[in-house]
């Protein structure tokens, strides 16, 4: 907005003052339109576009406050309005500002009044410019955030699809093997891949691309594991989880830990043909942490006995626990196996 383009509407019932204002503001680079009262000012504001409006308080017919309210109500993008008051009317000026005026000017004798009007107009127009720039910047930032969120969702979608593809390849490879141990190892690998893939499926279906709802995530993971072990063991999986959100990396670590603990329980807790239960709980542990418990009522662990299987699962659990700053311990008093993990939030 250039100085030459600044268009002012001055509303005042004092004809002599109107003429003086018109000449003084014209010398200062304004294009001035005059109105003798509120009704005429409203009519001009409807017909023409102004950059700023000056409005006197005392006018016959439609007074200053009524005109101010009408100007602001009729147009959501009304130009800034400078309210003109008498020297002893500070309460009127404050009321005008509360009603929506951008500024006020006190009527004084001489050129000082015109200088005050010029200064008020300049400040009001600068406020409009800053608000417009802020709105443009905010809209650009909002659009950028939306693009980034869409990109992140697409990335997570592609990662989840890729992990699903890798899982399918591992399953096909396992199906083609005669060695039972090799098939079992590949089955464990497939479940680990699925645990990680679940995190990314949660991310691309959620509005929050930075954190994972662990209650929903563990529910899906436990159901997948239940289906995976349904044909080989009779263990029933149950889950109780508080609404806890974790960042992506920590969600992956916790998901892998849960996968390993459940897998170990399904493999070793109960004898073939024996029905049992594996219970999983994730709870807030005070104000700063979380507590994960995976337990069964099976045969338990003999103190000092070597790890069953290859021991890879135990190493994976310890590595994942270290990555999220967690501590994991096994309750020796529990009948079966009770693993307790505590971690800061």
Summarize the structure.
The protein is α/β, with parallel strands linked by helices and 345 residues long. It has helices spanning 15-27, 38-47, 64-74, 90-99, 111-175, 180-204, 214-229, 248-268, 312-323; strands spanning 7-11, 31-35, 52-56, 81-85, 103-106, 211-213, 234-241, 245-247, 275-285, 289-296, 327-330, 338-344. It is rod-shaped.
Can you describe this structure?
The chain has 345 residues and is α/β, with parallel strands linked by helices. Among the domains are: 3-107, 3-Layer(aba) Sandwich (Rossmann fold), CATH 3.40.50; 211-345, 2-Layer Sandwich (Heat Shock Protein 90), CATH 3.30.565. Helix content is 53%, strand content 20%. The strands form three sheets. Strands 2-1-3-4-5 form a five-stranded parallel β-sheet, with helices on both faces. A five-stranded mixed β-sheet has the order 7-9-10-12-11, covered by helices on one side. A two-stranded antiparallel ribbon has the order 6-8. Strand 4, helix 4 (90-99) and strand 5 (103-106) form a beta-alpha-beta unit. The radius of gyration is 37 Å and the shape is rod-shaped. It starts with 6 loop residues before the first strand and ends with a strand. The mean pLDDT is 88.
């Amino acid at each position: 907005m250039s100085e030459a383009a600044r268009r002012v509407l001055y509303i005042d019932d004092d004809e002599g003052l109107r003429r003086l204002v018109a000449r003084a503001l014209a010398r200062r680079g304004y294009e001035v339109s005059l109105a003798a009262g509120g009704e005429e000012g409203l009519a001009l504001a409807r017909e023409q576009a102004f950059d700023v409006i000056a409005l006197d308080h005392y006018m016959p017919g439609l007074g200053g406050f009524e005109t101010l309210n009408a100007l602001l109500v009729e147009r959501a993008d009304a130009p800034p309005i400078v309210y003109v008051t008498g020297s002893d009317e500070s309460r009127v000026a404050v009321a005008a500002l509360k009603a929506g005026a951008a500024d006020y000017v006190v009527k004084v004798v001489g050129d000082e009044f015109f200088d005050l009007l010029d200064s008020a107009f300049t400040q009001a127009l600068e406020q409009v410019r800053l608000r417009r720039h802020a709105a443009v910047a905010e809209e650009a930032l909002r659009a950028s955030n939306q693009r980034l969120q869409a990109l992140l969702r697409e990335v997570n979608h592609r990662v989840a699809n890729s992990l699903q593809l890798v899982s399918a390849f591992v399953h096909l490879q396992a199906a083609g093997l005669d060695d039972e141990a090799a098939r079992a190892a590949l089955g464990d690998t497939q479940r680990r891949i699925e645990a990680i893939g679940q995190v990314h499926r949660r991310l691309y279906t959620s509005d929050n691309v930075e954190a994972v709802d662990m209650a929903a995530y563990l529910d899906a993971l436990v159901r997948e594991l239940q289906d995976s072990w349904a044909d080989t063991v009779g263990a029933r999986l149950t889950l109780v989880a508080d609404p806890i959100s974790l960042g992506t990396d920590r969600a992956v670590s916790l998901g892998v830990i849960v996968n390993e603990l459940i897998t170990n329980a399904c493999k070793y807790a109960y004898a073939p043909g024996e029905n049992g239960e594996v219970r999983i709980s994730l709870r807030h542990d005070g104000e700063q942490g979380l507590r994960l418990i995976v337990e069964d009522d099976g045969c338990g662990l003999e103190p000092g006995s070597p790890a069953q299987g290859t021991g890879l699962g135990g190493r994976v659990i310890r590595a994942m626990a270290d990555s999220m700053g967690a501590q994991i311990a096994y309750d020796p008093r529990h009948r079966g196996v009770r693993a307790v993990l505590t971690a800061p939030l």
